[in-house]
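step=encode ok
step=design start
structure_in=
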């Protein structure tokens, strides 16, 4: 419901998996992520999907997981353009 909610990484994984089915192992993504450790796990899954599809975009996990509006907005805009 808010851009800051994207900090869990779940939506990013879902977007990439929709565009490239099978690129992210959705069974490994923690859908109910509430802690920063779970967020980091989800971004590792996303990074693995980026590597599989040879997407060179740098994921600034530290900034994205801090629930920053600006960084999450920039990253979701990248995902939209991609």
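sequence_out=
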């Amino acid at each position: 419901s808010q851009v800051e909610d994207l900090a869990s990484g779940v939506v990013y994984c879902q977007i990439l998996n929709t565009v490239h089915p099978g690129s992210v192992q959705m069974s490994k993504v923690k859908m109910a992520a509430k802690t920063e450790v779970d967020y980091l796990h989800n971004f590792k899954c996303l990074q693995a999907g980026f590597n599989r599809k040879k997407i060179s975009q740098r994921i600034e996990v530290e900034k994205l997981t801090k629930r920053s509006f600006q960084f999450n907005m920039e990253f979701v805009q990248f995902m939209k353009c991609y």
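step=design ok
step=annotate ok -> Residues 36-52 form the longest helix (17 residues).
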